[in-house]
Amino acid sequence: MSLEEGNTPLIKTSTFGGNFLAKFEGANPTGSFKDRGMSVAVSNASNLGYRAVMAASTGNTAASAAAYAARAGMRSFIILPKGKIALGKLAQSVLYGAEVIEVEGNFDEGLEAVLNVHKTNGTVYPLNSFNPWRLEGQKTLAFEVVESVGVPDTVVVPVGNAGNIYAIWKGFVELTQVGLTERVPRMIGVQAEGASPIARAVLEGREIPEFTESPETIASAIRIGKPVNWPRAMRAIRESNGTAVVVTDEEILLAQTEMARREGLGVEPASAATLAGYVKLLKLGVVSKEELVVGVFTGHSLKDPDSMMRAGTRRFLVPPSEVLKLVEGELRV
Ligand code: F0G
């Protein structure tokens, strides 16, 4: 089951003061990295004869699951925290014809509901990232990076439910195991301040994260308090000699506009966390200007129109006859 996902652009940036490449996952068919994993997982569901799939989601998993299920001729049940999903993502699930189940609760509670259905009713295939096929698909990002630029020194990834950072690390590790490469990059996870159990555990040197009952951040994709894949993410960070960084919502929003206005790249807030993290790591001296860093930009800006509008810009309302005067006036400023 494919929509020709993957092979996303790796774009050189020039304005952030270091050697920083952006892997633009927004170029995937539904606008996020989730398509890599959905292709594999929905193919598996189809091979096993399932007729329906389900996923809890902060929006992107939902949109991707709905699209691939549609392509496979399956029904999709999408569990969303009510009122906490960016408009573009909700609209995608609607367009692809998912059955949208909104719950009064957060993502973590939605995921528990999926696990409950999975344990009691075996006829609906679960597509959340505890499903290992998802991660097998997502690891292909590492292969593409190596094909384009070799093994980078460092990879920066936004962390929510924590599957992706592990999947990408696994991809790099497997290349070393077959002798195609000789080392694995440092994996650095970025979390938003109000939803940062893994980053805090890493930075404070604790083995087990302290989970958050009510996670809060503008980056709704990574508004997750109890990441299901935390042991895997912490292993990827530890074994790659990596680390983590916490960014504020203000830093995320600033990074989103800077990415758009300096580099012409539109990303959603959870992805902007990658840039906010990189800028902070440079400032802290955790990352040097010389080292080759790949930042994973997980989702397209169109996913979250509200966040784009927040950026604000110079806007005017004039009759058509006044446009010339206005432009000439502006050019003088
Ligand atoms: N960036 C975006 C745009 C995401 O949608 C997600 C996760 C992440 C980063 C974090 O990835 O969970 O593997 O650590 N979104 C999930 C969803 C939770 O439901 O769409 P992760």
UniProtKB/TrEMBL annotation:
Cofactor requirements of the protein: pyridoxal 5'-phosphate
Top-rank EC class of the record's enzyme = lyase
Q: What range(s) does the Tryptophan synthase beta chain-like PALP domain occupy?
A: 2-299
Residues recorded as bearing N6-(pyridoxal phosphate)lysine in the entry: K34
Q: In which pathway does it act?
A: Amino-acid biosynthesis; L-threonine biosynthesis; L-threonine from L-aspartate: step 5/5
Gene3D superfamilies given in the database record: 3.40.50.1100
An example molecular function term from Gene Ontology annotations: threonine synthase activity
Annotated TM spans: none
Q: What is its EC number?
A: 4.2.3.1
Q: Which PANTHER family match?
A: L-THREONINE DEHYDRATASE CATABOLIC TDCB, THREONINE DEHYDRATASE, MITOCHONDRIAL-RELATED
Record InterPro entries? Ser/Thr_Dehydratase, Ser/Thr_deHydtase_PyrdxlP-BS, Thr_synthase-like, Thr_Synthase_bac/arc, TrpB-like_PALP, TrpB-like_PALP_sf
Instruction: Keywords in alphabetical order, please.
Output: Amino-acid biosynthesis, Lyase, Pyridoxal phosphate, Threonine biosynthesis
The record lists pyridoxal 5'-phosphate as bound by N60, G160, N161, A162, G163, N164, T298
Question: What is the similarity comment for this entry?
Answer: Belongs to the threonine synthase family.
Single GO BP term: L-threonine catabolic process
Full protein name = Threonine synthase
User: What reaction(s) does this enzyme catalyze?
Assistant: O-phospho-L-homoserine + H2O = L-threonine + phosphate
